[in-house]
Structure formats: structure tokens, C-alpha cells
């Protein structure tokens, strides 16, 4: 097919939507316009944006060069929501359009073809992009093409859809950007001189919003190029096509009222006609004749004609956000579009002089809460955007950038789903066209956080005068540390020594590069887990205890177990590597403890005879009812024990199928065990596991318990079902404070309301081999049971009816009763140890180990940091602990009798 100046049109991308009915940040958008009473399109109000800007602040956290002409800048944007200050992280790629070695372009699916999806990182790797961000909206249930227009590498891939208020960014071949609404104007010309209007190139079928809102392909003609890989153009059963195959400008086939049922050959294109367009085809075109096409884009604001052959690139978006350096009225209805709220977001804009393009992403993850569109407008204007528009966002929001010296781009920040990248139909990429330059420097890479005893792996990779990687392999380096007390350097090995921050510097051939390394302290940890935390108390037993530390910021760090300081109670043993070996068991010991400390922060391995995992339900011989229930009208499904599939083909499994397309709001699909009653979990469990067949729906997977006190407890099996097929899921129950015996009531799927369009409404999951680890069966053996009471002001304690003298009276302070914990442990079993240097008391009873520090309201329970409202304190040389807090964490029940000032403790 020939363009206006005779250029072969090839390569295409597109999006489909029959109704354009559901709009979303991840793909489909509800794009039906909302009209005011006066017939004007609804738009946002500028005064709201101005008011929001008055209470905001933008600060740059840092920047780094990506390649010559492009740099990545990190910002913190602070605003007020519901009266509270909120900080959001945003990442901006600044692209210098005047740099001769830099270009913007649009990448498509796989192999730069339509009708396919790929992650942003995948497209960047396939095409060698220095940086990329997810691009245009698309219909997630359609034919995987962008809704807006697209030009890639100077080729018109897809034309804009006839929808109102949908903006696009173009960059001309001489480096001039423009954001506007664009329409398409084209003509097909037969050999006999007659013409017919060409409505678009490589488009899915949809309902247009211009004119009378007619259906896109009725009485219309479209061109489909080799970039359209589907055999159907489009996959539309409502209009019968007449198709014409054109190769090298000559008609080779005509199929009247019947699809050719073939892919487009690389040397041609297919005309797809319907109704009056089909009549014209049959009247004016014949096999062997020539045919041509003439077309252009039209910028709606200026009326300017744009020759696609003069463009380097074009990418579609959604509403305009910034115009003239100010927040603009939204060109589409945001409130009902499904793209409102606070989300991860992407946008693009340019500076007033047209020199710089800004590719923008607002993060929503564990470190950042995302932005509303109004906040995004405010942020964009604060960094110098003169004109800008919204791109696709939500769970699709992904930015990848190439660090200095690296060969490929990687995630700039975690997405809403962690490190998983959603697959999309196109991305906006940044490319370097520079020749290979000379060595300019090198970048040091490696872990910026270590634990004491942990070795770090560091390398340096060179980059040239254009800041592009040099393929010379790793550079030989000499290392030194600014503080060897924090990290040690020996023969190129870097190892954490003690908490603090050091600067690690590498030198080579007179050049140097540095990286700051922080060795984390115990006060920065949120949890410390050693294997499963369980083992068997038998001489010769070896327990695998790989240690994982989680910081308060959410970072997970692996630390060698033998770098912790270990204490053994009830047995003798040793730790080597990540293995704990029991050498001998103390006489009479029924339970043993291996206590490991990292900078004072503890984790514990409880050793007992019943520490192995026990299958609770394998669904092979189920003799109780299993029911499907839901919370929302319109949600349907089924729950039943069925024969498994795949690796479970010879097993019975619990299968849960759901269809939420008819529901609204936050929706649940439950598999109820034993009707509404549930099944007993008789003994205290520290963990639960099960085999789960995922459906990659990205829905939330949970289990629900009712404990002995009647409290409902929820256990997260997976925050997002991001896998297909079977895998084992493990859940730590220690921190859920379940009172046993408990009941496992149901397992279920949740589709939450926020970002609902990004998760599947239908699917099937399955469960097998639900198992619990219940070490308490032996670790609690021998613990005294009964009742004890203490009276304020009295140096006595009654235990099972017998009065005993104690050396300190209970104290009531600010409504909390404090006692020396020794007296409770004497009555109910357990032991306590005092560390005067660190002002720490360690309490052990049964399967529980608690570390409390004088004056601190936080405490550590079996390796997990917990919060409390009270803290231990020292009085008269004795350490007093909050009685209720400690006793209940140890599995005891505490009651207070106001009239007699009596505390009663029972087990």
C-alpha cells in the first residue's frame, strides 16, 4: 500500500472495542462521553487543580544519566488528602529532542506486530530501548491493539479511533513535539479514477462517538497491513466483509462478502469493505488492476494537516492534563471512566520550548500511594510540563530504565504487583543512535544494604562518551572502604561487619566510582525467620534454617544462619552454613529452643517431637458438604471436590469456579467447608500450607478462621493470584493470634473494587493437601495448668488454691498491671532471662519466645516485631512487665476484678 508520497506502509498496531464499553487504566476504558444539560462535553474544573496545587510540594530526590540526551529524575510529591499529608514517589525521564543521538519511538507487542501483548521490559529488551513506559489504552478482551493512533519508526501503524477527547503525542522527524486530538482523512483510488473514503488503518470494530455514533465498520473501508497478524480484520461477526488483496500495488484477489481467511502477506495489504464500500469495490476494482491510497492526519485544535511520513512517532493516550503550563479541564469524563481514584499512573508531556519530552510515572507500591489525576496535573506543572496528556496506568504502570554500564533496561520501581510486569500492546521507548565511543567511566553495581556477616557481590561496568555500555566485560578493580569497621574488604570480597553506612570505592586505570553500603541494625528489622522455625528434638537431627530478614521498609534480605549468634536451650548443637544440627538432648527435655540473634534481634527454632507438617485435608474421602457462597448479587460459581488435572490427575481436589461479571463492588467467591460450620483445627498451629492451582486472575486469595473466642481471623494465601498451574503456598500463622481450637471456615477468591478492571472476573482455582504444623502437641507437654491470682499491694500469689509468698507486689500504673514475670512462669511453666547490657528480658514458654526491652513498646514474638501500648520498666531494681500483654502472648488468659483489685490468670 502506498502512502501520500508513495512510501510502502508496513508495520501496524491497534486496539479493539465493540462498544468501547469498559474503560480502565490497565486496558479497556469507558469512553462514552457525558454531556451537560447544555450539550457540552463534561470536563474537570480548573479551580480544583489550582486549589490542590496550593497545598503541594515537589522535591527532587536525585537524577542519573541514562544515555546522551536522556536522564532519569526521581521526585517526592507531597500533598494533602483528607486533612493528612501524603508523599508520593514519581519518576521522570527527560528526553532532549535536540540531541542528535536520541529518539523516541513506539514499540508493539511481540515482534512489533499487532494482535499480541508483551511486558514493557520485554519490548525494551527485544528492541534495545534505553528506557520505556507502558503506552496506550487497549481493550483487554479485544484483539490486542491500541485505541489511539500510532506511528512507529516513521510508519503509520494504526489510525486514531473516532472518539471524543482522546489525545495523542506526535514527534516530527525534525524533533518537534505536539499533543492534540487527531482525526484521519484518507481515500482509496481505483485504476478507473473513482475514489472511496478510507476510514482507517488496522482498526478493531467499535462504536464511534462522532456524528450519529455509527458502528465503525458499517459502510466503511479499512486497510490492514502485515502488522495485523490476525486472519480476521477485525474479529467482527456483525459486518460481512468484502476483502481485496493488494500486492506490490496490484490487486491479486477479491473475495465478495467473504473474508479471505489469511494473514496479510509482507509485500501487500488487504482492503476490508462493507455495505456501500463493498458495492464500490465490486463496481470499480478488478484482479490485475492497480489501486492506491492517499491519507493524512488532522490535528483538531489547529486544523493542521499532518503527513504521517513526516512523523518519527505517534502514541495515543486519554485525556489532556496540562495545557499552557496549567492544569487543563479533562477532555473526557474521569468520574465515570474507571480511571479515577488514587492509582499508579503514566503520562507524557513536553516543555514550552519543545526541546524536552517528559515521560512520567507515579508509583503505587509499598513505598508510594499513587496519585489522582488532579494530583498528577499538579505534579506535571511543577516540573515544567507545558502540555501533557494521560497514558494508560493502574496495574499496567511500568517503567524500565537502563543503569549506566548495563546492557539492558530493568524495572525502575516495583509495580502495583511487585516485580511482575503486566503485558500491554504498546510502549513508548527511548533509543540511543550514538556510535560507539571511548571509555568514559564505569558504574559500580551491587547491594546497597547488607546484614552483618553477609557477603556482597559488586561489579563495575564501563560506559562510553555517549553513556552507552561498552562490551568489554567486567573491569579489574581495586576496592577500598571509607570505614572498615562497617564493611570489610579482603581480596575483592566485601562483607558486612556491624551496623552503619560506609562508602565503597572502586578504582581502575585512574578512574573511580563509589557506592554507599548500609549494614542494617536490628532496630531496622521487622522480622527474622529461620527456615520454618520448627524441628525435631532428636540427637543427630539436622534442620535446614535459611535465615531471611525483612526490614521495616519491606526489603527482604537473605543472611547466612551462621552469621547469627546462637544459644541452645534443652540440647547441645551447632549451626554451620544454613544447617542446625542437634548433637545431644538434655535429660528430661521435651522441647528445645535454638535462639539466633542478629544485632540483638531474635529468631527462634522450636524443636519438638511433633514439629512435622501434618496433612489436615487431602480431599480424597470427603464426607461433609462443600458449598459455593458469595457476598454479592450477580456473582455465580461452584465449589466441589473433583478429579484433579495436570500433576494432580490422580488426586481429588477442591475446585472453586467463579463468575463475577454480573456483580458490583468488592466481590467474594467462597468455598464453604462443611456447609456454614467449617472444620476443626484442634491444636495450636504455627503455619499452614496447601497446594493451589492458580488461574493468573490477579485476584486475592484468602482463608477464613473462627477462633476459640469467636473472633474471625483472615489469612492471606496470595495477595495476587499471579500464576497458572499448581504451586505450594505457605502461610505463617504466628502473628495472627488465633485462639485454639479454631475452625477453618472457608477458602475464597476476592475481587476488590479498586482497579477492578485489571483482574479477571471469571476463573477457576483449586486446592489440595491443606496441612498444618502444630508443634504445641509436644512443646506444651508438661506445662502446668490451672489458675493463679494476685492482689494489688499484696506480696502473695494463690496458685490452684495454694498461697505462696512473692518478693514484689503487683503494680497498677496508668491502668496497666505490672509484675515480675518470674512469678507467672513459676506458676505456669517457662523461663525468663535478663540481659542487663541491652536492658532486654527474654521470656520462653511452650512454643513462644518474647523479647521485651525496658522502655520500648515494641516487642519481638517468634522473630516478628509487634506493637504494644505499654512497655516494661524498672522499679526498685526489679524489671516489671505488663502482665496482660505478656501472659496473653504466652497463651494464658488474664481477668481483672475491680472491686477486689484481683488479677486472675488461667491456662
TrEMBL record:
What are the TM regions of this chain, as residue ranges? 20-42
Superkingdom field: Bacteria
Q: Which UniProt keywords apply?
A: Glycosidase, Hydrolase, Membrane, Transmembrane, Transmembrane helix
- A GO term, aspect molecular function: hydrolase activity, acting on glycosyl bonds
Spell out the InterPro entries in the cross-references. Big_2 (IPR003343), Cu_amine_oxidase-like_N (IPR012854), Invasin/intimin_cell_adhesion (IPR008964), Mao_N_sf (IPR036582), NAGPA (IPR018711)
* SMART domains reported for this sequence: BID_2 (SM00635)
Q: Where is the BIG2 domain?
A: 438-518
- PANTHER family listed in its UniProt record: N-ACETYLGLUCOSAMINE-1-PHOSPHODIESTER ALPHA-N-ACETYLGLUCOSAMINIDASE
Q: What is this protein called?
A: Phosphodiester glycosidase family protein
Q: What is the lineage of its organism?
A: Bacteria, Bacillati, Bacillota, Bacilli, Bacillales
